[in-house]
Amino acid sequence: MTTPLLPRYGTGSLAEVLPSVLAALGEPGPAPIALPSVRAACVLLVDGLGAELLRTHAVDAPFLAAMADAGPLTVGFPSTTPISLATLGTGLPPGGHGIVGLSFDPGDHALLDALRWTRDRDGRHHDQRETHVPEVVQPHDTALQRAAAAGIVVTMVAPRFQRESGLTRAALRGGDFHGVFALGDLAAETVSGLSGPGRRLCYAYHSDLDTLGHVHGPGTLPWRLQLRQIDLLVSTIAAALPPDALLVVTGDHGMVTVDRAPDFDADERLQAGVALLGGDARARHVYTVDGAADDVLATWRTVLGDDAWVVPRDEAVAANWFGPLGPHVAGRIGDVVAAMRGGTALVRTRAEPKLAALIGQHGSLTSAEQLVPLLVAGPAG
């Protein structure tokens, strides 16, 4: 069995990006990633931009392929959007910021959907921003807050619906939010955010590459044509950069194509002893009933075999899957943690029908999911 690719927390992960950018802007503190000194900087996160996918399809992204690459970086575990955005936004590993899964138990024996910040009841999504206040679930200051406190003008450019979302409040609070509709106003708002007087930091986000990877599969023609649009977006922003500004482009995970999909909802062996099943199809948190953890671990290892790395919580923590744990974070991690291998996705066709139907998935510890580029344009290149 191949070994998992463990995140490089502290030296080469998403957690090191914004601290290094702040150092480039003149703020004291560690800078694990060497960047030139600048007056203004933008971090553009392209959802689903994996390093291996970009390398394979470099012909569709000539500008990105020609940029200076300070990566690849690992994203952390699970390699899923809310975890990665919180890791980038706080400069902490998942064990530090505490958002440990696409869905996880925050401590009251029910699942919190970290992407929507909701709970599902009666087939509906119920807002949890008052019940599970994002600033309490993730209490650490973000890098954007630290930058603003230092007098840096901070701009956040993202889809309009993300304004005041639970995930934005938890992971990326602290900037002046500029909501956008499409690639054109994303580019315009990003350039504007870098162009005023004084030190400036812009965080920008684009999601459509991930969407097409999920729906059509990574590397398919629709995905490749979307990558071409992103290449044009990045070249447009880079061409309009002020001479003393830096553009850093990265991703929050890669993606794999699913070729095997065992169904938890149809397998009584996997259900036995399980109180809650969190995470997503490539990275599962298994919360067990009292006294059942050892039996669940043994059963899951037998049923999934070489399709997954299945370990108890303590082993996942000791192996640094989540990084050092902050107070109260250990209980958010499943009693058993399962990270899928190859093209396997552990789906739930009844409880998660939309997620189960996706062709492209991510979340695990394979290089295809873990590695993202760190591309630099401006004074460095």
Automatic annotation (TrEMBL):
InterPro entries named in the record: Alkaline_phosphatase_core_sf, Phosphodiest/P_Trfase
Superkingdom as given in the UniProt entry: Bacteria
Protein name, as recorded: Type I phosphodiesterase/nucleotide pyrophosphatase
Lineage per the UniProt record: Bacteria, Bacillati, Actinomycetota, Actinomycetes, Pseudonocardiales
